[in-house]
Amino acid sequence: MAIRDIGSLRADIGSLRALAAGAIAAGSMLVMSGSAAFAADPAGVWMVADQSATIRIEPCADGYWGVIDWERQAGMDTKNPDPARRGRPLLGTPILIGMKPAEANEWQGKVYNPKDGSYYKASISLTNPDALKLEGCMWVFCGGETWTRVSGSARGTTGAGAQAREAHPHSVCPPQSPGTAQAPRRN
Question: Which CATH number characterizes residue 60's domain?
C-alpha cells in the first residue's frame, strides 16, 4: 500500500508540475500579448499638457515627425532662427523632428520650441497607449510634459486658418529628395 501511495504521489506531483508549467506559459503569453497590444506607436493626434494645441504625429522616412495641428488661439512663429520662416503661422509648423527608435516605447530626435525659436534634443515615450511623455534638454537643464491622445479630432484651428484647412491635411513628413521612399501614411 505504501508503494502505491508513493507512486500516486509522484503522479500527482508530475501533474502539478505540468499544471504549473502550463500556468506559467499562459501567464507569459498573456504578458507578451499585453505588450504586443501596447506595441508602441506614437502616431496620432495629441493634446499638449496646457491644452493650447494638438500635435499630429506621423511616421516618416527619417523617423516620426509632429506638427501643430490645432491651436486654441492662432499664433505666429516670430522667433524662428530662419528669417525666411519667421512670421509664418504656427499651424502646420514641425515641432517633433526625426524621432527615431531608441529603445522599447521611446524615440529620440529634436523638438522645436516656437516660444524661444530654439531646437532641443528630445525624446518621446508612451507611458500607456493614450499618454505620450515629451522630454527635452538644454545643456544640463531638462524638462518635460505629458500629452494625451485625442480620438476623432477635428482638423483646423479656431484662428485665422480654420477655413483654409483641407478635410484631409497634407502629410507632416518633410519633402523627400527624388528616389527616397516615404513611410506609409496612417489614417
Answer: 2.40.128.520
- The reply to whether the predicted model has a pTM over 0.70 is no
173, part of any domain = no
- CA distances (Å), origin 166, targets 13, 161, 170: 68, 10, 8
Using 70 as the pLDDT threshold, list the residues of the chain that sit under it. 1-39, 152-169, 177-187
Q: What distance in Å separates the CA atoms of residue 57 and residue 21, rounded to the nearest whole number? A: 42
**Integer distance in angstroms from the first to the last C-alpha of the chain?**
71
Report how far apart, in Å, the C-alpha atoms of 105 and of each of 47, 113, 125 are: 19, 23, 5
Distance, in Å, from the CA atom of 1 to the CA atom of 18, rounded to the nearest integer, reads: 26
61 and 24 together in one domain:
no
Which residues in 99-124 are b (16+ Cβ under 10 Å) and which e? beeeeebbbbbbbbebeeeeebebbb
Its domain, for residue 22, covers 1-37
Q: Which three cell numbers stand for residue 70?
A: 490645432
Taking only the tens place, the pLDDT of each residue in 154-163 is 444 444 344 4
41-80 per-residue burial string, b: 16 or more CB within 10 A, e: under 16: ebebbbbbeeeebbbbbbbbebbbbbbbbbbeeebbbeeb
Per residue in 28-60, pLDDT (tens digit) is 433 333 444 456 799 999 999 999 999 999 999
Number of domains in the chain: 2
